[in-house]
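Intended use. Records like the one below are meant for learning the mapping from a protein sequence to its folded structure. Do not use them to infer anything beyond what is encoded.
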Amino acid sequence: MVTKVEEIRSYLIASIQNGKLAPGDRLPSIRQLANQFSCNKDTVQRVLMELRFDNYVYAKPRSGYYVFDSHEEEVEEGVSLPNSEIANIAYDDFRLCLNETLIGREDYLFNYYYRQEGLLDLSKAVAKLMEETGVYVPLDDIVITAGTQQALFILTQVTFPNRKSRVLIEEPTYPRMIELIKTQNLPYETISRGTHGIDFQRLEEIFQTQSIKFFYVIPRMHNPLGTSYNPVEMKRLIEMAEKYDVYIVEDDYMSDFASQSPLHYYDTHGRVIYLKSFSKAIFPALRLAAICLPQALKSTFMAYKKLMDYDTNLILQKALALYIENGLYGKNSQYLKYRYQKDLANSKSILADQPNLPPYSLHHDSVLFDCSKLDNFKILRQYGDTLENYFCQKSHQSLLQVKNDSCLKQFLGSL
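Structure written out for the chain above:
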């Protein structure tokens, strides 16, 4: 059975190829096409997006869509798809989606939206993305927030079902989580995480003796360590959290590039609060994130979020939905995954030729060295970054993060 999208697409392409719509001709409006094919405007908009990405048509602001002609001077610079190898591919593609959103002129994007959890189109698109990476949740459990920082802030503010008060974090960890805790003067505990993971005996002691509200953790592709919990460790962590009535906040910021299942995949107790960011796969300035909440916590979370912003930016939500639905998110993720794998391979190749290396771990964009037993650390630190911001106490001067091949070679040459 032919879908409406396929029907409209075939009709427009045929009209262009047989000359019914010549280069430079204006296409029928979105409203006209929706009426002609008895469908909604979103369906027509999706077809036009596809045709635009395939270079059949281009858009003029406040005017409509026109048949593409590569020789026509009127075509706006940057309309055609950039080469997939260009580093700013995400910026260009997302700009197209943003323009498409504004051209559509849906009234609800400029008013209050009936669904506080987020734009339904985006929630559905995100749910599909999550399923691809091993996160299976009901649509209503997904909430779109104005970035991970807003989600984390709300989690630190609301009362959890366990009625506990302290936050547990790994060290090292995400610097802005540390800032969030310290700025609010929240009660917290820390547990050390090294290249071999955490001490589960120590973790159980903390769960048992402290009033831990939630444990903030980066199980996959940890920043800055680059390491991941294995399935046995993930299952053990969840069972321990259930035993001692502790919630786990899983920050899965590299979900699109990890090879193993997330912590949430193993959760059968409703203990894991899953947090997904889009900044790594698109660009940092896109302040949108998705959080999957246990039902026991959702109403409290939503009540607090309503006090902050009610609706997360609807125009950005619609643009992101288009970006995902039209395959651009997947395309850019594959591009980045290839680049990360190439960078890792280069780092491994450089390190393979070096004897007597200090302990190290590989991340997607860097190598982390433990220089605690090296005498010339003051010289070596010029080739990398120290990680004071990743620790609550600014006394960890021995870790050095080296971020590119040139610096890595200079670092190794100075050992």
